[in-house]
Specification:
The protein is an alpha+beta fold and about 240 residues long. It has one domain: q2cbj1_9rhob like domain (Jelly Rolls, Sandwich), CATH 2.60.120.620. The protein contains six helices and 15 strands. The strands form three sheets. Strands 1-11-7-15-5-4-2 form a seven-stranded antiparallel β-sheet. α1 crosses α5. It binds 2-oxoglutaric acid and fe (ii) ion. The site of fe (ii) ion has 4 residues, from loops. The site of 2-oxoglutaric acid has 9 residues, from β13 and β15.
């Protein structure tokens, strides 16, 4: 990798501290893995605080207007806040080998380049130029329906969500949930017990599942259960851009 393609050293070192063999194993087994305390409380508060500002976003979506749930989110504009940009480019090279392994085992031909800059070039060349990292904001009664963050032909199959608020103190309810729909079987649900600053890395839409008769594809969706009290903010880092 040349210098321009290399992720920022600070974010890279922070991610390096996690046990990637464990994360990779949990992704294979469960379709998600936690990265505890990826951000400190000050960083969480600073990021959540951006939500109310007038700058740095390309659009705002009120979920209730689209049947997406209740609550709202804003997509960042480029240039992304430094920390978001750094985490996106530093997390990607650790996830690309997992994504490539998953595609190989699902019989999918797409392979992902080693650096996020190279993957961005692929997205941008295909007209997917709009940034997808976002901040979400929920109040009492809000929720996020099960969904998949697909924004065009090019999809990176893993994404990150970082909880910026502290459960029990800032909000109640509002659990991050994932469902896994297996062919001709009943669906499985997973609740991810995030605390403030924790990240979850999870499958965007499909993942391979090792069965007794080989590997098959399962369909994943994620969402947030009803926030029962208080306010909850999340940072979402999606690696493909949008049309
Ligand atoms: O608020 C959450 O925890 C879920 C956010 C989400 O849907 C995403 O980051 O893609
Ligand atoms: Fe999402």
């Amino acid at each position: 990798m040349n210098a321009q393609l290399r992720p920022a050293p600070e974010a890279d070192a922070r991610l390096q501290a996690f046990d990637w063999a464990r994360i990779s194993g949990e992704l294979d087994t469960h379709g998600c893995a936690m990265l505890e305390a990826l951000l400190c409380p000050q960083e969480c508060a600073a990021l959540a605080g951006l939500y109310a500002g007038d700058e740095g976003f390309r659009s705002r979506v009120v979920m209730g207007r689209h049947g997406f749930g209740r609550g709202e989110y804003r997509y960042f504009s480029y240039p992304l806040p430094e920390l978001v940009e750094e985490l996106r480019s530093a997390a990607y090279p650790r996830l690309a080998p997992i994504a490539n392994r998953w595609n190989a085992s699902m019989g999918l031909p797409v392979r992902y380049p080693a650096s996020h800059a190279e993957f961005m070039a692929r997205c941008h060349a295909a007209g997917q130029r709009r940034p997808t990292p976002l901040l979400l904001q929920y109040g009492a009664g809000d929720y996020n329906c099960l969904h998949q963050d697909l924004y065009g032909e090019h999809v990176f199959p893993l994404q990150l969500a970082i909880l910026l608020s502290e459960p029990g103190r800032d909000f109640g309810g509002g659990e991050f949930v994932l469902t896994e729909q297996r062919p001709r079987m009943q669906s499985r649900v997973e609740v991810v017990p995030l605390r403030q600053g924790d990240a979850v890395v999870f499958a965007v839409h499909q993942r391979p599942l090792q069965g007794t008769r080989g590997s098959y594809r399962v369909t994943m969706r994620h969402g947030v259960s009803r926030v029962r009290s208080g306010h909850r903010h999340t940072l979402g880092i999606i690696f493909h851009d949008a049309t």
